[in-house]
Amino acid sequence: MWFAGVGWVGTDLVVAVVDASGAPVSARRAYPVALLDDLVADLARWRGAAPGGLACVIDSTAGVLERVLVEADLAVHRVDPPHARARAPHHGCPAGGAPVEQLAALAVTSPAALQRLTALEGGLAGRDAEVEQAEAACVPLEDDLRAAGSLVVRGPAGSREVALTFDDGPHPEHTPALLRVLRRFDVHATFFCVGMQAQAHPHVVEQIAAAGHTIGHHTWSHAYLPDLDSLSLSYQLERTSATIENVTGTAPTLVRPPYGGRDPRVLRELAASGMTTVMWDVESPDWARPGADVIVRDVVTGCADGSVVLLHDGGGDRAQTVEAVPRILESLLGDGYRVAPLDRFVPSAGRTAAAPRPSR
Length: 360
Ligand SMILES: [Zn+2]
Description:
Residues 160-340 form the NodB homology domain. The chain is an alpha/beta fold. It has twelve helices and 15 strands. Strands 3-2-1-4-5-6 form a six-stranded mixed sheet, with helices on both faces. Strands 8, 9, 10, 13, 14 and 15 form a six-stranded parallel sheet that branches.
């Protein structure tokens, strides 16, 4: 079997391949994110050439790759700290995930450090207890942040309004398809964009903004933020904000941590960045491609007054989401909901109850 360390450095995706003894098969190659398909094709080619197949190894900062590789039917494993650590920007060197040579070598020397990722489990598979503990530790702080307007989980009860949010894009095909649906229904949504994707597809970011939707921040590489030190976290925040601002002229004010992953330190640093952290109360595992019927059912039965709905426009093939959204909108609008821009759910100084309501 061969092992491919797959990761990112700055604006590029990178890969290095070793054989079962750890000897290099392919030295590091870099791909701009826009050429993600080429990376996947190369991995499939190595899989075909390797005796016993190919295992891909990513780290917990490389969520931008995770679903795409899983959906390509590649064997994907995740390695976490302390075995693999992201690199903060240092002396002019760009930030990145753990070195891909190190990820590939770990598969040979420390196979127990590898967590297999499947099509049906989320990217944090195998870390449930740890994630739950980190989230539980956030509860007292979250009450304070909510009161201060730095954290939103849902809008006010009794408003008959819901907000739609789409994560992990922009995607060159699925995001424009969703924009057409939203325009047809004359509603606005929020797109939490991954910085690397925004950099690769700026014209899609422009389309989102031009259609009047809100662009939020979903980190640079779709990292599990509690695994990052403060310097790496700042890099993720600043680089993404700068990329979005370069395209739209406006820096994002809303941030959603990938996987909803947070601990008290992460929440404090997000709040200190001046952005409002946005969670959600309704979701469907559309990233696992359960079928449009399931996505429609999950969202429609889950919604209540003030709900914030999480779906995905990127990170893989989201055709099922694109198929589900018109049916979701028909149902919600038919039930008397208005689809509100998310910023109506963000308490801010000066907003009053008399603020005009959107038509839907
Ligand atoms: Zn995400």
